[in-house]
Design a protein that fits this description.
By secondary structure, the protein is of the alpha+beta class. Helices cover about 20% and strands about 35% of the residues. Strands 1, 2, 3, 4, 7, 10, 11, 12, 13, 14 and 15 form an eleven-stranded mixed sheet that branches. The protein has a six-stranded mixed sheet with strand order 17-21-20-19-16-18. A hairpin with an 8-residue loop joins β5 and β6.
């Protein structure tokens, strides 16, 4: 069983919990996930199974789409609803600070669209001197994860009710919705934290592809019908079909030349020598996805990931 099974993760469990349940149901330990979700979050969690685990780094790229609810007027140490309250929208003399209006919220949100530097939450999986930030934070040790450059394509307001902003965010990997909630609260001078989060899309995978954990357990072995096979992954990557000689070379990790290729598919000429970073999927003549190769010259492909 090789491929990707997209799970609609429920709230209250970790991404690793979902993997553990999938391992029991499917009877294999060779399962991982692409793009972790916090326990409170729900939505798209792609599980890579069998040989697809070798493609995890390639499958993690691509935009992410989230819907989230941000509670304005209250900040927490974890930047979400699971943390301890750090401050509320009250002034130093204990007077209530008026909640920001819709126009002010909309204007401040524009600060977080585009490419900018973001500080990950203290309670995160980022490493500080080799130690996960959340481990240090739980020990009440100073935690300042290194700021990273992130990209947000759009933030759309869905609704503003009382002190809660519901929005949809289209962003690139590495962006933290919890940091958005915290930073927006600071920009509005009222504090804020992430109340709810749902991931609707992760790269090529959407909720349309997803199966709930309960459905996975009910379907058991029949869940393979929902598995996206290896050959269908990375559909935008150009590919080449190898002859018998090329197949033997590729599966042993040896370079492939033009003489080893039966058919070239996709927008590339020769081996696209002008773009040596190009990667190409390699198939055998029966349609089996055997490797991913990097273009090394105008006549040489070097297998980087072998799948058989």
């Amino acid at each position: 069983m090789d491929g990707v099974l997209v799970i609609d993760k429920p709230a209250g469990v970790t991404s690793h919990d979902v993997v553990s349940r999938a391992r029991r149901v499917l009877g294999t330990r060779r399962i991982g996930y692409v793009g972790t979700l916090d326990p409170m979050a729900t939505g798209v969690l792609p599980l890579v199974i069998g040989h697809a685990t070798r493609l995890a780094s390639l499958l993690s790229v691509g935009p992410k789409i989230y819907t989230g609810t941000i509670h304005l007027g209250m900040a927490t140490d974890t930047y979400d609803a699971t943390g301890e309250v750090q401050n509320t929208s009250q002034s130093a003399d204990n007077q209530h600070v008026p909640s920001p209006d819709a126009l002010e919220i909309s204007q401040k949100l524009q600060l977080f669209v585009g490419t900018f530097v973001q500080h990950p939450p203290p309670f995160s999986a980022k490493k500080i001197n080799g130690v996960r930030a959340y481990r240090l934070a739980r020990q009440n040790k100073p935690v300042t994860p290194k700021a990273v450059t992130v990209t947000v394509h759009s933030i759309d307001i869905i609704s503003i009710t009382d002190n809660c902003l519901r929005c949809r965010v289209n962003c690139e990997p590495g962006f933290y919705m919890r940091s958005l909630a915290h930073d927006l609260g600071q920009a509005l001078n009222c504090g804020g934290h992430l109340k709810e989060l749902r991931r609707e899309q992760s790269g090529a995978f959407t909720l349309m592809d997803a199966l709930t954990v309960d459905a996975l357990e009910e379907m058991s072995c029949q869940s393979t019908r929902k598995t996206i096979p290896l050959a269908c992954l990375l559909p935008d990557m150009p590919k080449a079909i190898l002859n018998a000689q090329g197949l033997k070379k590729a599966t042993h990790g040896n370079n492939v030349t033009l003489g080893d290729v039966l058919i070239k598919e996709g927008s590339w000429q020769a081996f696209n020598a002008d773009e040596l970073s190009t990667q190409i999927k390699l198939f055998d003549s029966e349609g089996t996805f055997v490797a991913i190769a990097a273009v090394e010259s105008d006549s040489i492909l070097h297998p980087e990931i072998v799948l058989v």
